[in-house]
Amino acid sequence: MKKISCMMLIFSLFSSLFAYGEKESASYQSTYSTKEEKNISEILYSVSNLYSFLDKNFLYEIDNDEVSDALISALVNSLGDEYSYFVKSDEADDFEQDLNGEYSGIGTYVSKMNPAFIDAGNPETYMLKIVSPFPGGPADRAGLMSGDMIFSINGEDITAMDADEAAKMLRGKKGEEMVLGVYRNGIEFELTVVPEDVVTPNSASTVLLDDVGYLAISTFNEMTAESVKEHLKNLEKAGITALIIDLRNNSGGIVDAALEISDFFLSEGTMVSLRYKDSSGNPDIRYTANKETLVSSSTPVVLLVNGGTASASEIMTASLADNGRATVIGSNTFGKGIMQTVIPYSGGFVRFTSADYYTPNDVSINKTGIRPDIEIPEKTLSEEETKIYVDIINNGEIDEFIKEHPSYSIENVELFVSGYSEEIDKTFLAQLIQSEYFYRMPAHERPVVSYEYDDVLKAALRLLGKDI
């Protein structure tokens, strides 16, 4: 480990706010001992002197890289914000990874609160939460659901890890089985999943029932707006008369991408307002629609949302709904009405909450979410249903059934489901085996979506006049 001076370390972290104590001493006296409010210069000066003392008197060599990372992490953690954190240099490559590229993993979006906010009585504060498995990916096929929480990987407890460390561990190694400790509906159980090459999706489209366009947007990244634009042009060429946009389990991403896509549908009006801290020097911003649109105002639009619809996807939902451009169907959205900024720092990144956003109707949806125009509660499994569901996944029954009935059809799905008692909601079983059938198809033959076992999508189709 290369030794660097305390002066270099501290000044690299906090510029000239630190001072370096030259005089060697066998004892250390803090520059303050009372608990009255102290200004930042005093605090940093004291930390600098403490480091100087320890550097000269601590028996072993100090790893200054570790000191640097710990100081930065402590500062960011002290903000008291679950969405603010420091990404260390050795995790920076994963953080920067192109979300449209291939990588080895289990295929799911995850979230985890900062370990500084652990509440022993609330598993969501310390477990790794599955936000949305990629359709047909390893996590999806293994039976992981949105809202599941992971507490261990191959027997190793991950509850004290930060989000990036836990997510990196969850990727595993291609082709090597991982045993996940899963918490669902108060029950702990294990699922086995095998990482493989996966592609992070951002959007997909198809035509349903001859003339209804279906567009699924799973995340907002640098490529999403351009991808969505191409999908919309292709759907227009196909002669669609209405459009369904699926934002379920879209946990957000880049706000600019969500606004650009919203602008495809709006010729006027406010899309969102951002409000910054006065001392930041950033003026409050109101984003308004451009006059030109990509989708005709005569084309009805329906948005599908649920509890996994968050952040940038909520911005798009409110933008279209408040301007009267879309009807919203599903369940209450997540409620993340704040924006984060990422800055490069010390070889890594600092992510911090920087602004509130307000809907076109000047409402903050932070911690409350958006209530749909037509509410359809998300189905959940009871404790007893969860046990049955887990047993079906772990005993290989789906794999055996598909070996005996290799061709996908609604009839085969119904045949599989009919073999189980009324003790479990058959929709979950149908979706599970349908997903496995789809995965085994060649990619070019795989359906983008199927409405047969999707109550929310069926409700949208009925709203648009389809008799199903």
UniProtKB/TrEMBL annotation:
Query: What PANTHER family does its record include?
Result: CARBOXYL-TERMINAL-PROCESSING PEPTIDASE 3, CHLOROPLASTIC, TAIL-SPECIFIC PROTEASE
Signal sequence segment: 1-19
- Family the UniProt entry places it in: Belongs to the peptidase S41A family.
Pfam families per the UniProt record, alphabetical: PDZ_6, Peptidase_S41
Cellular component (GO) terms are: outer membrane-bounded periplasmic space
Q: Which Gene3D superfamilies match?
A: 2-enoyl-CoA Hydratase, Chain A, domain 1, 2.30.42.10, 3.30.750.44
Organism per entry: Candidatus Ornithospirochaeta avicola
User: So which domain of life are we looking at?
Assistant: Bacteria
Q: Which segments constitute the PDZ domain?
A: 92-171
Keyword annotations from UniProtKB, A to Z = Hydrolase, Protease, Serine protease, Signal
Q: Name one GO molecular function term.
A: endopeptidase activity
Looking at the keywords, is Ribonucleoprotein present?
no
**What InterPro entries is this protein classified in?**
ClpP/crotonase-like_dom_sf (IPR029045), PDZ (IPR001478), PDZ_6 (IPR041489), PDZ_sf (IPR036034), Peptidase_S41A (IPR004447), Tail-specific_protease (IPR005151)
- GO biological process entries: proteolysis; signal transduction
Q: What is the protein name stated in its UniProt record?
A: S41 family peptidase
